[in-house]
Design brief:
By secondary structure, the protein is α+β, with helices and mostly antiparallel strands. The protein has a single domain, classed as 3-methyladenine DNA Glycosylase, Chain A (Roll). About 15% of the residues lie in helices and about 25% in strands. It contains four helices and eight strands. Strands 1, 2, 3, 4, 5, 6, 7 and 8 form an eight-stranded antiparallel beta sheet that branches. A hairpin with a 7-residue loop joins strand 4 and strand 5. The longest helix is centred in the middle third of the chain and has 8 residues.
Length: about 200
């Protein structure tokens, strides 16, 4: 698909004013777009997880603000990007009013644009299904780095858009993945039956 067909317009700032769990559901079916000097990559969001520091012991900012989690405190509609395990980068959409630390982790997308560019970044033998299935793979495929921490999600480098011709998908909820605190909270949202979802439908 040509870059011009993938460069969809960013969502209005008001979209990010929703409560965190509502936004985590609302992001399903939207298109994540990344533009670099190499070209455009895009994909439909099919899996998210919500984190609200005020009540959530699994949230990075549960114990307060640090240099690492500063971007999680807003304003909404910005990126919170961090590194885990010393190697993988994860992308989050910041939510709630400025000063209230909350975010939605983008766990997986279904690639729609720039697959060959994604594959060049991920590895020549990687099948489509595994290009962006999981937050670390997604960020590698989209060339999302720590340099984007705090960046606006209204472009020109990174944004979320309405999916062309896309109706809101069905959504299911399950416990979040890979955490030890509040592990049973059903704050993970995904498109049931979608082959690009990163984890099992439920624990």
């Amino acid at each position: 698909m040509p870059d011009s067909d993938c460069a969809l317009s960013p969502l209005a700032p008001a979209f990010y004013a929703q409560p965190t769990l509502d936004l985590a559901r609302a992001l399903l079916g939207k298109t994540l777009v990344r533009r670099t000097a190499e070209g455009v990559t895009a994909g439909i969001i099919v899996e998210t997880e919500a984190y609200v520091a005020a009540i959530d012991p699994a949230a990075h900012a549960y114990r307060g603000q640090t240099p690492r989690n500063r971007s999680m405190f807003g304003p909404p509609g910005h990126a919170y990007v961090y590194r885990i395990y010393g190697m993988h980068v994860c992308l989050n959409v910041v939510t709630e009013p400025a000063g209230q630390a909350a975010a939605v982790l983008i766990r997986a997308v279904e690639p729609t644009c720039g697959r060959e560019l994604m594959r060049a970044r991920r590895g020549a033998g990687v099948p489509d299904r595994d290009l962006c299935r999981g937050p670390g793979r997604l960020c590698q495929a989209f060339a999302i780095t720590l340099a984007l921490d705090g960046a606006s999600l209204h472009g020109p480098e990174l944004w979320v858009a309405e999916t062309l011709g896309g109706a809101p998908p069905a959504a299911a909820a399950s416990p979040r993945i890979g955490i030890s605190h509040a592990a049973d909270w059903p704050w993970r949202f995904y498109v049931p039956g979608n082959r690009y979802v990163s984890g099992r439908p439920w624990k």
